[in-house]
Amino acid sequence: MAALGVIVGTGWSTASAQDVSIQAQVKDQQRDANGRVDNQPVPGVTITVLDASGAEVGTAVTDDKGIALIPVPSRGTYTVRIDESTLPDDKALSSETPAEQVISEDTFVTSKRIVNFFTGENQRESTSGFERVAQRLTDGIRLGLIIAMCSVGLSLIFGTTGLTNFAHGELVTFGAMVAYFFNDLGLHILIAGPLAIVAGGLFGYSADRFAFARFRKRGIGLISQMVITLGMSIALKNFFLWRFGGRDKPYLNYTNQVGTEIGPITITPRDLIVTILAIVVLLSVALTLQYTRLGKATRAVSDNADLASSTGIDSAKVIRIIWVAGGALAAMGGVFRGLDEQVSWDMGTSLLFLMFAGITLGGLGSAYGALVGGFVVGVLVEISTLLGVPTELKTAPALLILILILLVRPQGILGRAQRVG
Amino acid sequence: MDIGAVLETAILQFIGFNACYYAIAAIGLNVQFGYAGLLNFGQAGFMAAGAYGLGQTVQIFEISLWWGLLIGIGYATFLGLLMGVPTLRLRSDYLAIVTIASAEIVRLVVRSVKFRGQFGGTDGLTGFARAYQQVGVDLGLDLAGQYGFWIFTFSGRNLWNLIVGWTLVAIFGTIVWLLMRSPWGRVLKAIREDEDAVRSLGKNVYSYKMQALILGGVIGSFAGMMLALGNATVQPDNFSRDLTFFVLTGLVLGGVAKVTGSIVGPMLFWFIYSFLDSFLRQLIDKPVRIGDFTLIQSTDVGVVVFMIMGVLLVLLMVYRPQGLFGNRKEMAFEGR
Predict the structure, then answer these.
(1) Does B214 fall in a domain?
(2) ipTM associated with this complex
(3) N or C: chain A end with fewer CB closer than 10 Å?
(4) Among residues A121, A334, A116, A143, which one has the least CA distance to residue A244?
């Protein structure tokens, strides 16, 4: 065993000795139109690598990508020095990255050690407080609208059938995936998007027709149905992962847009149109619920299914329509989310919990509650990052909202006080 | 196709370490879901509580490993209170939502850069299991040696994990079995069937539910501890939502509200899982293509098997909700 170890060990170290290099990257810290950090490469900068004794190992000039690759004999301690006089005249090295950086042997995770030099101010702190709030608020409104759109179906399905559908997030992903599929085939997203929404409606229709309507007929209990939705969520999520792959992918259209400044905020035309479309859709949902026969029937079934049935409302039909509309709205939310961020196999799952927080806040099962609650949660989640919540944990405050609302007013903002226990 | 090898892996998984910590988790979940009718969809959160309680001892607090048992139980109790206080007076689906959300937040917090100093971030925690392995050595096991016969050959390290794990399964199985025969257990089952009737008998339903939630959670935290000790590391992404769902699948497979169900179910789950996995891996040694369209290749197998397990859960709930050992009457409870 020991002998084998030595052979393998030496073989490995000679192999790696040939390829070890230091990759210096020089970047200018900037913001893109969305206000996201978007660093630009700085070409033509001289980088020198010195070994532990101070002797020069190699020198290189950064290319168009701002990268200088310097081979070194082996993993070890080196000093990487940037020649500040070769920087463009209007750029200066940021105080965060000194002109000389010492790297040690154990920081070579792979055979290529990356060393970054930044110029310009760190963009994350340079904008004024007011602008940051305004920008976050815009992002939050967009997220809130998308959450509201996705959760209408979730809330109404709960209201009419009592089912908590844990696979609703997958309906969102489904929409984004179908749009990506058609987009990838060469259809413009303006055509692929509506197709995805139709597919989402069909998906909702089949979910009710071939699954949940039958479960209700068979008398399968709500808790069993809830567990069934968990199983569906696992199955669908892994199906997406199988067919789509684990990487995030953007739609082919409207990817690189330059933002326009409107007052304190910068927004791309894409995001602006998504926001306006979402508002229009949600307003029409609200108006439909308020004034049309179908809307009134939906609210009646949602209030009390038995009572609604006894007044002549066909509740099975209403439930079917809710599944179709809910599926279509979730798919639309998925497409919008895909435009806003990117398409990924678990995008819906990560939204699900925000949707639940939203509809609980608004009032579980209440028709308008989903709209209001989802919107509020989306805005709060984005705003929370301004109050020092790290971005990676920005969904955590939604849990706090959820717990607080359950303690204080379990029926939600718009739910009527009734027995919820 | 070597069916013998496929069966061999499946049988080893049937009694293996995965089945064993799943069984502990399922025994806990059974107290909540099976006996008390509480929809805990965040068992992974409780498991993480136990695992991190242990993991933090040596690396973060620099104290003996065994304090971790107390810390883990403490975390699990805290988590149970956090989930239970706002929801246990309400309709049961609120608990489902809060548990699923809390477990996810627990995972995000322990893997975050912000709390790297407390939970080790995405690297997780290591270096705490030595005292645990030392006990095995003291009992005369050679951790690097080979033990066993026929296909049941384990390294000393694995054997030690299996011994401790299955002992815990036996202990918790017995405790839960005894508890459910006691007056306390009967009240719990009565709450599942009709909460109002129990309340009218003067029982404090809220308190009983809370006790069941915490007891199940603490047992779940031991599953997490076992996972941590067996792997000698705690990784945040072990405690994903899927873990909860698969423990639940195992429980339903065996049959809820039955101690045997909660133990045999997870074993069967791992048998089926690993059977499908190695079967498909042998079947798909080269990519299956229809024209240019790649239907499936060997790297997809893991994902496809998970997908099948999801479908299995759906089919089980539709056609045999009582699982293998369960009683259909005990499954018929309604959450509202």
Answers:
(1) yes
(2) 0.89
(3) N
(4) A334
A228–B333 CB contact, under 8 Å:
no
Whether residues A164 and B96 touch (CB distance < 8 A) is answered with yes
Please check whether residue B336 lies inside any domain of the structure. no
- Whether the per-residue pLDDT at B336 is higher than 60: the answer is no
Q: What is the pLDDT of residue A13?
A: 36
Positive or negative: CA dihedral A273, A275, A278, A279:
negative
Q: Please say whether the structural domain A22-126 has been given the CATH code 1.20.1440.230.
A: no
Would you kindly state where each structural domain of chain A is located, as residue ranges?
22-126, 129-408
Strands annotated E in chain B: 125-126, 146-149, 152-155, 233-234, 288-290, 293-296
* β-bridge partners, A403: none
Does B312 fall in a domain?
no
pLDDT in tens, A204-263: 999 999 999 999 888 888 888 988 999 999 999 999 999 998 888 889 888 777 777 777
Give the total number of structural domains in chain B.
Answer: 1
Residue B79 structural domain: 3-239
Report the predicted TM-score, pTM, of the whole model to 2 decimal places.
0.81
Residue A333 and residue A394: Cα distance in Å, rounded? Answer: 20
- Classify domain A129-408 by CATH number: 1.10.3470
* Residue of B105, B246, B304, B333 to mutate, testing the A interface (most A Cβ within 10 Å of its Cβ): B105
On whether residue B315 sits in a domain, the answer given is no
**Residue A352 contacts residue A393 (beta carbons within 8 Å):** no
